[in-house]
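notes to self, project folder thing:

trying the whole complex as one job this time. last attempt i did each chain seperately and stitching them together was a nightmare. two parts in total, labels are on each line so i dont mix them up again. if this works i'll redo the older ones the same way
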Amino acid sequence: MENDSEVKVDRWVEDRLACAAPPAVWEPDTVTGLQRFRKGRQSRGARNRKLAWTGAAVTILGAGALMFPATRVVAQRCVDGCQPRF
Amino acid sequence: MSQNGGGERLGLVNASNEVLVAQPSGEAAADLEAVFQDQYRNLTRAIATVIRDPACAEELAVEVFLKWSRSRAAHGPHARSWLYRTAIRMALDELRRQGRRSRYDRLLDTIRHAPEPDTMLAAKEDAEKVRAVLSRMTPRQAELLLLRHEGFDYQELAAALRLNPASVGTLLSRAQQTFRKEHIKAYGER
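result (full assembly):
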C-alpha cells in the first residue's frame, strides 16, 4: 500500500520527467524514418550477401587449390624453405 | 497506454496497420513496417525525452528498429517491451556521451543559438536539469523511471527489465527517491 509521501514523490518525479518531454506540437517524421529503416535493412542484406559470396569464393578457391598435387608440392617447398630459419 | 493484441506474428500490429502495402521483400517486411509505423512516433518521443536533439532522437529510433528487425527473438508479444527498453538504453548511453562533450562544444552551442524568450529558456533549463540527474543515476534506475513514465505498469516493467514482479514497486520507489534526492542536491527544492 502506497503511503502519502510515496505518492507525492511519484507525482513530483512524474512532473519533472514531463518537463523533459518534447513539445506536444513536435511530430517525428515517420515517412523519412520509414525510408531510413528500409534503406538500413537493404544495406544490411546486401552486406550479408556480399559476405556470403566472398566466403563461398574463398572456400571454392581453397578447395580447388588443394585438389592439385602441384600446389601441395609448392606449399611443401615453401614450408621446407622457411624451416631452417626458425 | 495502448494494449496491443498478441495474436499477430509480430505482436504489435493493430487494425490501423492493415492498410499497409506489402513490400516486395515479402510479407515479413510488411509486418516489420507495420510495427514501425505503429510504434515509431511514441518511441521517438520517448527517446527525445532523454536526449535534447530531436533529429538525433529520430536517427536513434530508426537504429532501434533496425536492431529489432535483426533480432528474431525480440519479435512476438514482448516486442514493445524490447523496443522501449533498447530505446531507453541507447538514449541514456547517448545522453552520457553528450554529457562528456567538452566545455568548448557547450560554449559554441550557447553562441550559435539565438536568444529565446524567458519562459522557453526556463523550460529548456528544467529539461536539462532532469537529463543531468538521469545521467548521474544508475542505468537500471533511470530505465525504471523512464519506462514508468512511458506508461509501463509493474508487470510490463518486470518483463522489460527482467525483474522479479514482486520487487518492482520497491525498486521503482527507490529510483524515485534517488532521482528526487539528486535533483534537490543539485538544484534545490524547486
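what i see at first glance: Chain A has a mean pLDDT of 85.
need to look closer tmrw
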